[in-house]
Write a structure and sequence with these properties.
The protein is α/β, with parallel strands linked by helices. It contains 11 helices and 13 strands. The structure holds adenosine-5'-diphosphate and magnesium ion (MG).
């Protein structure tokens, strides 16, 4: 059983002069939940389209299962939802899934479990046309799971849903991941990726800017906001303090990042020792959003 499910090597897609996906390399390993995170137009859907054989790459390559399977063979072991769910409106949930099993040439034994998993078993005999968008999306997830895929690919699965629907889908993704299915989730929503994924690939203009655990993207030593009566005295203290880095002044308040573990107590004690009269002092954590912005704004291509 190969540990690597999918590998991309400098995968590139150009539409005329526009490079939608630019030299993208990455590796998907079994058991993880990957977030493909980037603003609209960053190349997420194009990337998914290429590995699912619906978009032709311009250059570069990808391989499934360490090259032991052709893409055609591999896709039988993958479940993907890349478009709005489309089923026969006049057929019931159960009838639709039975048809999907015929098309996928897999057994129908799984249908009951999957309908229960997505919380639609009670509605198995309702026509698809009577379903809410959230229910349709959940049925699509059940359909993607009927062949017990190794990897579930979801492209913006919560788009257009109400908060309740969004919550249900996110909970469902976590349940599916807990059962051991590897997931690749494309999303433009930072908090979605933060809530659901173990690993993240950040894309912007088709270029990969970050790849790694979500935790590493969110874990920082934080920063302090400090103001003193005597600004000069405070500045020279901060400049020479070893656990502190870059200092920015805003409205008379110094914002200074910690470069290693540093508690508020430790720093305020040292300020006291230096006899600096403090008029403002707080410790803050940057949000994932500001981390994300600083990654996509200041870094050049992340090395692979
Ligand atoms: P995302 O899914 O991250 O929103 P897409 O992969 O859909 O991004 O699109 C990436 C870029 O490629 C966008 O600039 C988009 O306009 C362009 N693009 C996507 N599909 C086509 C197409 N069939 N023809 C021309 N340009 C396209
Ligand atoms: Mg898209």
């Amino acid at each position: 059983m190969s540990k690597t499910l999918l590998q991309l090597n400098y995968l590139t897609k150009k539409y005329g002069s526009l490079t939608a996906v630019n030299m993208l390399s990455l590796t998907l390993t079994r058991g993880k939940v990957y977030g493909l995170l980037g603003p609209n137009g960053s190349g997420k859907s194009t990337t998914l389209g290429m590995v699912l054989n619906v978009v032709n790459p311009t250059s570069g390559s990808f391989e499934w299962y360490e090259g032991s399977l052709t893409t055609h063979q591999a896709l039988k072991k993958i479940g993907a939802i890349i478009e709005r769910p489309n089923f026969y409106p006049y057929m019931t949930a159960l009838q639709n899934l039975t048809l999907i099993c015929k098309i996928k040439q897999c057994s129908t034994d799984n249908i009951e479990d999957q309908l229960k998993l997505v919380n639609l078993w009670d509605r198995k005999n309702s026509k698809f046309s009577t379903f809410s968008l959230g229910m349709k999306q959940r049925l699509a997830i059940a359909a993607a799971l009927v062949n017990n895929p190794d990897l579930l690919i979801l492209d913006e699965p919560t788009n257009g849903l109400d908060p309740e629907g969004i919550h249900q889908i996110r909970k469902l993704i976590l349940t599916i991941a807990a059962q051991g299915t590897t997931i690749l989730l494309a999303s433009h929503l930072l908090d979605e990726v933060e809530k659901v994924c173990s690993d993240v690939i950040v894309l912007k203009n088709g270029v990969k800017y970050y790849e790694g655990p979500v935790k590493e993207l969110t874990q920082t030593y934080g920063y302090f906001e400090i103001a003193a009566e005597n600004k000069k005295q405070l500045l020279s203290f901060l400049e020479t303090y070893s656990a502190l880095g870059e200092i920015i002044e805003e409205n008379g308040i110094f914002q200074v990042v910690a470069t290693k573990e540093l508690s508020s107590i430790e720093l305020s004690k040292d300020l006291q020792k230096a006899k600096i009269v403090i008029i403002h002092f707080t410790k803050k954590q940057p949000s994932l959003e500001s981390q994300f912005l600083s990654i996509t704004q200041t870094q050049k291509h992340a090395s692979t």
